[in-house]
Amino acid sequence: MTNETRRNWKPATAMVHAGTMRSPYGETSEALYLTQGYVYDTAEGAEARFKGEEPGFIYSRYANPTVDMFEKRMCALEGAEDARATASGMAAVAAALLCSAKAGDHVIAARALFGSCRWVVETLMPRYGIEATLVDGRSLDEWKAAVRPNTKLFFLESPTNPTLEVVDIAAVAEIANEAGARLVVDNVFATPLQQKPLELGAHVVVYSATKHIDGQGRCLGGIILSDEAWIEEELHDYFRHTGPSLSPFNAWTLLKGLETLPLRVAHQTQAAARIADHLARHKAVSRIIYPGRDDHPQADIVARQMTGGSTLICFDVKGGKDNAFALLNGLDIIKLSNNLGDAKSLITHPATTTHKNLTDEARETVGILGGTLRLSIGLEDVDDLIEDLDRALAKAG
């Protein structure tokens, strides 16, 4: 078999070819290996493989040829040394955090997080004796003030879900380094095409591959990327023994998604920028947050660390929840769903869906109000999407 792992390719080329292993049949598409286990020529060969003295696969909970191709292709895109693919984005987040922390350790996280990520930090980790502190991710002073002698991990997402706050990754990474801690970044909203956390100083990057990487509403998946030493010393045993592994079929589906990722993200970002500008001028909209606009609260950081805007828009409808619901119920093309990064444009009301478990005070602190909506732009014609929004906004008053 050949393994194409060149790293000097441009992203569009890498997303088609990187990591490909071909069987003796020379198939064009990546092979799908639906197997649980593997056979060995001899007992001595099995022993050598389990000792790590001989290369090869042992069990698909640990590694699988199709999953391996997906991991290598993501490494080529992200610029990472190694990776482990997981069954979902939340499996990636939980594994990345829990494999590096133990009872008595301390974690600092930005408070603007996806609801399930915040649950892992605020609720799950303390059950195992891991202390957690939430800070305003935009405030470097708060990151610094929260550091303790036992601080081991920093965790953030940027842009944030759903209000698209942007955190200065390089500056936070510097604080983490000074504290002897590792910075884990959830890079889902930026995609690996528009932001490179590892290049900015982050130590670990996680993705929900369910979002843009698949991008067509077909399967779940996640991935953790870092340097080879951390993967082997911290993540590998946790991953091997707890089993959050990605199925080979989903890995194959995600490989197909990666082939078109640059095309989809480019179209979606261009369309989102135009729609954000349109919404900003609409009389029924009281707030618009889009990383590609000059009025974004952290526009200077966006310019430094991102190469594109976003495929997502956050905006507030005047009149609160009632008018937001009226808009949602008035849409035709844009579908009501809590997913994002899809070929279909999707919209959700975070206060009653993705962030419903936060207290009213916690939601208000991170800018999620009754009229707040998160809009994920798909591949439809942008003029049709604008007309759909205008009709729905009229119904929203």
Report on this model:
With 397 residues, the chain is α/β, with parallel strands linked by helices. It has a domain at 261-395: Aspartate Aminotransferase, domain 1 (Alpha-Beta Complex), CATH 3.90.1150. It has helices at 11-17, 43-51, 65-78, 89-98, 115-127, 140-146, 169-179, 191-194, 210-214, 228-242, 248-280, 299-305, 320-330, 360-365, 382-395; strands at residues 3-4, 20-21, 82-86, 106-110, 131-135, 151-157, 182-186, 204-208, 222-226, 285-289, 312-317, 335-336, 346-348, 372-376. The strands form three sheets. The protein has a seven-stranded mixed β-sheet, with helices on both faces. The chain has a five-stranded mixed β-sheet with strand order 10-11-14-13-12. A two-stranded antiparallel sheet has the order 1-2. Strand 4 (106-110), helix 5 (115-127) and strand 5 (131-135) form a beta-alpha-beta unit. Helix 1 (11-17) packs antiparallel against helix 3 (65-78) and helix 13 (320-330) crosses helix 15. It is globular, with a radius of gyration of 21 Å. The mean pLDDT is 95.
